[in-house]
Amino acid sequence: MDGFFSSLPMDLSDAAMVAARERLQDLVDFEEKSSGSGLNRQFVQRRITKRLKEVVGMDSLKKKVERLAIRTITNKVRSSVTKQVEEPLNLLFYGPPGSGKTMFARLLSGCLYDVGIIKENKMVEIQRDNVVASYVGESEKRIKQKIKSAAGGILFIDEAYSLYKGKSTNDFGIDIINTIMHYLNADAMENTPVFIMAGYQWEMERLLKANEGLLRRFRAPWIFPAYTAEELLNILLNKLTRQGFLFEGVEQDIFGLINCVPLNIRLKQNAGICGNIINYIKESIDERIVDLNDTLGLFTINQHDIRNAKHALSENLSLYSNNARRTVGTQANQDLSPLEGECCVWVEENLAA
Predict the structure, then answer these.
(1) Global pTM?
(2) Second label for 111, Cα 20 to 30 Å away, from 93, 240, 292, 347?
């Protein structure tokens, strides 16, 4: 392969060289995978690295993907010799909203497909509203349909804890859990998708207590930490770049915009903050642009847009803080929570700026 690249024209750009090298490696990997000769550690590492290379942060989780793939492949080989049942591949994702659980699950689907662990690179995403019905039998029917559509890939259950409302309530979510349990049994494992249940850690632990057999059919939980301010900046800049925006010279201003949002709110919203900021920046550009056909102007971000985005953020948070003050005001001798108090102080300072 090195000889091939040495024969390429000298004026080929570095980016084109990298793309050509990656494309050739993809072809080699495909041949190795198809022939069954590619099941070695280097092959697995190479395919997983390619899938996850643009993921911001999550270093420990990236290593977990590699270990999961290696362990699954070796277990499959052992099972073919000993005829013992393979370990379950099902996963639990613990973390707050916006911490990348759904995004990572989609990439995991590609990783597992690339190394031959699942048959199709697909992921079916569901939440409680997609499967829980209001009458007997319908919930079970819905979840079976979703499991069937995810066969060969991954079934991702977001906010899975919402399936369980407690034993004392007349709720059909427990039917969903019992049906999933049936498909998690060893004798049905080969015909079912990989199950991933995701949500807040404490809520997920409550869910697992609803059926004692659930926990032993899933691997140890994968913890998704909240993003740091630096990681949020990288995520935001990557999103802006993919959308074609130019922001040279205002990177530090964008970082300041992220960093001034109260920590507790950042921890709660995570990457969701980035989408809000981008929308506020677009609104600012749309308000100041004169020539609506000015392509360059429509994609250029300046300090004026950052200031407007900051003000829009503070106005949005003011609605939250005002509601918090009204709620607290009706209860004698009760202080604002840390989140509410920090939000109120930040809003007052930034609206006055």
Answers:
(1) 0.77
(2) 240
Domain borders along the chain are 1-38, 41-223, 229-352
For the chain, where are the alpha helices, taking DSSP H only? 2-6, 14-35, 41-52, 59-82, 101-114, 128-131, 138-149, 173-184, 201-209, 229-242, 251-259, 263-269, 272-288, 295-298, 303-329, 338-352
What is the DSSP secondary-structure string of 241-269? HHTT-B-TT-HHHHHHHHHTS-HHHHHHH
Residue length of the chain: 353
What pLDDT, in 10s, does the model give residues 299-345? Answer: 999 999 999 999 998 887 666 555 544 443 433 333 334 444 444 44
- Residue 154, helix vs strand vs coil: strand
CA distances from 153 to 49, 54, 108, 116, 227 (A): 20, 22, 10, 11, 28
Contacts of 146 (CB under 8 A, 6+ apart): 124, 126, 130, 131, 155
**DSSP SS3 for 54:** coil
- CATH of region 41-223: 3.40.50.300
**pLDDT, tens digit, 9 for 90 and up, residues 44-67:** 999 999 999 989 999 999 999 999
User: Nearest 5°: phi and psi at 249?
Assistant: 95, -10
